[in-house]
Write a structure and sequence with these properties.
Number of helices: 2
Strand order of the largest sheet: 4-6-7-8-9-16-15-14-13-17
Radius of gyration: 28 Å
Largest sheet: 10 strands, mixed
Number of strands: 17
Mean pLDDT: 75
Low-confidence stretches: 2-42, 220-225
Distance between the termini: 89 Å
Helix content: 10-25%
Length: about 230
């Protein structure tokens, strides 16, 4: 009787060990699958193309690939460059066009979104032109922007917002005004009757820049030979 009890207990123990081993093996398989999915997802990033929609971009050693485009309602999509070191997607909704560009550089993905409002430009085609872009930047990174040929503006993204590093006018242009706030920077360039206003602000983790060119009628009251006015509104 005692021996039968021992044998039965041993059998239960063997079955219990087998069950634990099976469960452990199943858990290992589940963990492996989850890990693989996470690794695949880590190679993809979703970027906003302004109000036009979202673009999912995958990165690997060979470059970038447009995996998916999800346009907002009313927007048409055209993938102009689907793979390479640089990819491009164009969105249109009739009056507006938004160009999304992503580039692999130094191991990170940099993005640029350019907005063109055709109706707005038609209304001001004789005296005004506007361009809006979105540029990704990490904390502490300095980005140099071309102010549509009027000069260059260097901006550093900080934990608290944006910091103006430098503003330099191109030949024939001059910097006539600089305004700085925690999350917004404005630089004004002038060449004769042509005035270009460059604005940068931090929006949804990206640097949103906007340039507006205006051609004034008659005298513009002088450009201020004493140099640019510099105002800090901290």
């Amino acid at each position: 009787m005692f021996r039968a009890t021992v044998i039965a207990a041993s059998l239960v123990a063997v079955l219990l060990v087998a069950a634990i081993a099976y469960a452990a093996g199943s858990a290992d398989d589940s963990t492996s699958t989850t890990s693989t999915s996470a690794a695949t997802a880590a190679g993809e990033q979703v970027f906003r193309a302004g109000e036009a929609g979202e673009v999912t971009v995958a990165a690997d050693s060979s470059g970038l690939t447009v995996d998916r485009v999800d346009p907002s309602a009313g927007w048409a999509v055209e993938v102009e460059t689907s793979a390479g070191r640089e990819v491009e997607v164009k969105f249109e909704d009739g009056n507006r066009r938004i160009d999304f560009q992503a580039e692999l550089e130094d191991g990170r993905i940099g993005t640029r979104v350019r907005t063109e409002d055709r109706a707005e430009n038609d209304d001001h085609e004789d005296d005004e032109d506007r361009t809006t872009t979105f540029t990704g930047a990490a904390d502490g990174e300095t980005v140099s922007f071309d102010a549509e040929g009027a000069g260059r503006v260097q901006i550093r993204r900080t934990a608290g917002g944006l910091e103006l590093v430098d503003a330099t006018a191109a030949s024939g242009w001059e910097v006539v005004k600089i305004e700085r706030e925690a999350h917004e920077i404005e630089v004004e360039f002038r060449q004769g009757v042509v005035e270009l206003e460059f604005k940068a602000e931090l929006e949804d983790g990206m640097i949103r820049t906007r340039t507006e060119t205006t051609i004034e009628d008659g005298d513009h009251g002088g450009s201020g030979s004493d140099g640019p006015s510099d105002r800090d509104d901290d």
